[in-house]
Amino acid sequence: MKPLCLTASLLISSLTATASTIPPATGTALDGHTVMLPRDLPGHATVLILGFSQHSADTTTTWEKQVRAALVTASGPKTDIAFYDMPFLEDAPSLIRPFIIRSIRKQVPDVVKPNFVPLTSGQSAWKQASGFTSSAPDAAYVLLVDKAGTIRWQTHEPYSEALFAQLAQAAHAIAAETK
């Protein structure tokens, strides 16, 4: 009977752990508009792609390209699922952040700029919410949240078709709930 209780208790605690909410954040997207989370989350599923180091650019870009290809076209959204690419610049000296953002702006395609929101504060709260681990500091931390900012799915594994299929399935389930 004890193994059954232990298994049930582990299952309940893992469900509770994934039901956390995102911390508040305010940033300026590369197209110049202000984004306040969770307030500005659309009424459906949103994928948040977080990078906590300069070296996370490749992994976050890989996830972002796949999410964008599946969700957005040059003329606008393909689905009711939104995304934000959110690099954290808090560890960069404040004096050079404008230069970093200018450099990023030159590299990011125009179609992504409304969804690319560099953040300069709140990093520790976001690390906690995303399950950041010091063994994967350069990973892309991918969160799927609902309108309330509740984390419904997350990973920090490298992009794979299998993980993307899990993300898409969970995102479509959230979008269906809100219709």
CATH superfamily (homologous) name: Glutaredoxin
Gross CATH architecture: 3-Layer(aba) Sandwich
Helical segment count: 5
Taken from the alpha-carbon principal axes, the silhouette is globular
Let me know the number of strands. Answer: 8
| Radius of gyration computed on alpha carbons | 17 Å
Mean pLDDT: 86
- Main sheet attributes: strand count, strand direction, barrel closure: 4 strands, mixed
**Termini gap:** 42 Å
The CATH topology corresponds to Glutaredoxin
Q: Beta-strand level of the residues, as a percent range?
A: 15-25%
Spatial order of the strands in the main sheet? 6-3-7-8
Task: Summarize the amount of helix as a percent range.
Answer: 25-40%
Oligomer: single chain
Domain tally: 1
What are the secondary-structure elements, in order, as H or E? HEEEHEEEHHEEH
**Uncertain ranges:** 1-18
CATH class: Alpha Beta
Structural class: alpha+beta
Describe the model.
- By secondary structure, the chain is of the alpha+beta class.
- It has a single domain, classed as Glutaredoxin.
- Helices cover 38% and strands 20% of the residues.
- The protein is built from five helices and eight strands.
- The strands form three sheets. It has a four-stranded mixed beta sheet with strand order 6-3-7-8, with helices on one face.
- Strand 4 and strand 5 form a beta hairpin.
- The relative contact order is 0.21.
- The N terminus is likely disordered.
